[in-house]
Predict the structure.
Amino acid sequence: MKPEEALLSVNDLRIAFDGVEAVRGMSFDVRPRETLAIVGESGAGKSLTARALLGMLPRGATTSGTVRLLGEPDLAAHRGRRISLVPQDALSALSPVHPVGDQLAAAVRSVARVSRKEARARAVAALDRVGIPDAARRARAYPHEYSGGMRQRAVIAMATVNEPDIVVADEPTTALDEERRDQVLRVLAEQREAVGAALVLVTHDMDVVRDHADRVLVMYAGRLTELGPADEVLGRPRAPYTAGLLASLPQHAPPGRRLPALRGTPPAPAALPPGCAFAPRCPLATDPCRAVEPEPQPVEERLVACHHWPELPHPATELFLEQRQEGQPA
């Protein structure tokens, strides 16, 4: 896709704290009306990358590279209007001392010159759209009077009330059980369609990616490892790290065998190994991998950062399944 056709373009994004880079040279785009999932283990830099899209990085972060929304670099000016956030913790995202409807109405009036009555009507309509029952009455309730699932719906309503171009959802189902998780994801998908937005979905759950994403961006140690159509990446991973994540899913566990996990742990940003950061955990690693960090390169319809991607079997999860079957640590 040409840069001018993307809603949002990220080029060589780097995020550092006290000189240590936690996100290292990320480049990707977000396309109109798509769902782009960003996945990886804890510490991969997923949430930092997502926050950078909104200009909401923590204090002390230094950045380089560019993030442009519709060609414009001033992200803060578009936050709440053209791009919005569904945070991980809905309770902390809502003020405990104001009714939910008042908070949504304030979000409307922050970007549109409308009367209080009109803002209130839009707030109630947004709550109704995400499935809050008796929305006019519940708009007068406080966040602590909502259930966990309803609070998450309320923050989705707040994120979509101004019909943004992009919604960023940062681990929006972390504290929810499976039933409520599915409900929230369904509401997010419905809202994406209702307002015509693209969705950037940060998650560690590969099943969520399989069910909801158009494309998937896999991160490891602050870098892009693989990016492409979700069905291709999940069906035929080209990066060993992606393969390891998929091999850890329950459906790959043979009867009576322990579910595998990727051996080892991700490196800390301040203690990256030379070469490919995944090399110490990778069954394909060779001396070049330990000396030279691979750059993302076009492979079919995707980008892959791996020296050995042509050698991967199909599906590449067999690499990790064979390790387990042979009794090696996985």
